[in-house]
Design goal:
There is one protein chain. 67% of the residues lie in helices and 0% in strands. It contains two helices and no strands.
Length: 60
């Protein structure tokens, strides 16, 4: 539970720096989105060969 509170606090601080005051529900939705997307991105990264160039760096 502490990790959840820490992440929500971090997201709130980042939002406040940008002049946004999100609700707790907004922050929880962002947290759920990040949990899903970051796990999937990690899986994709692990599936790619190490020599794969970053997107936008491939020149045919």
């Amino acid at each position: 539970m502490e990790d959840n509170c820490t992440l929500v606090s971090t997201l709130r601080a980042l939002a406040l720096r940008q002049g946004v005051t999100p609700s707790d529900a907004d922050l929880e939705a962002v947290q759920a989105f990040l949990a899903t997307v970051l796990v999937r991105l990690s899986e994709i990264e692990a599936a790619l060969p190490p020599e794969t160039p970053p997107a936008g760096r491939y020149l045919p």
